[in-house]
Design a protein that fits this description.
mainly alpha, Rna Polymerase Sigma Factor, Chain: A, Arc Repressor Mutant, subunit A, 9 helices, globular
């Protein structure tokens, strides 16, 4: 029954068939890991946050109503998990320090070094965005959520999400240009 809908599987988990959560985990753990990795730039933290999400899914399974698309409910839990982590941490390593650590791991051939520098600059520019804009951009561009789904997740209108993503892209471009040594207008 691996082709059951996510909503149906989660309803089964809610109703006591917790072993069905394994199927949901297999479907979504990589997607959540990538979401967290783009937010934190930390592999081990991303793995921990994914585990925390599924612990919360199990803990709060009785609150699942099945009215929203399952991924919306799951991302709400993921966002709350990340926000709770940020609130608890007072000694967070700056993203710039984490990105510098990633960049200095091992030497690359010249042709790959330039590409790696561009990726690093893009990551640094993304890290400079406010959290909500970064989340909106990651969800729309990397996680392939529709604006309607992001609006449900954020509890706002579709137009608000469109503006948020547009502004995030504009700010990302400006930050990237500044990091590249260009002049942002």
């Amino acid at each position: 029954m691996n082709n059951a809908t996510d909503n149906h599987l989660m309803e089964q988990v809610r109703d006591g068939k917790v072993e069905r959560l394994a199927i949901i985990f297999e479907r979504y753990h990589v997607m959540l890991y990538n979401f967290f990795l783009r937010l934190t730039y930390n592999r081990s933290l991303s793995e921990d946050l994914v585990q925390d999400v599924f612990i919360r899914v199990l803990k709060y399974r009785s609150s699942y109503q099945g009215q929203d698309k399952f991924t919306i409910w799951l991302y709400k839990i993921a966002r709350n998990t990340h926000i709770d982590y940020l609130r608890k941490r007072k000694d967070i390593v700056l993203l710039d320090e984490q990105l510098d650590k990633i960049a200095s791991q091992e030497p690359l051939p010249p042709e790959k070094a330039e590409q790696a520098q561009e990726i690093l600059r893009l990551s640094q520019a993304l890290a400079k965005l406010p959290l909500k804009k970064r989340e909106a951009l990651i969800l729309s561009r990397f996680q392939d959520l529709k604006y309607k789904e992001i609006a449900e997740l954020f509890g706002c209108r579709i137009g608000t999400v469109k503006v948020l993503v547009h502004r995030a892209i504009k700010e990302l471009g400006k930050a990237y240009l500044e990091l590249s040594g260009g002049v942002a207008s």
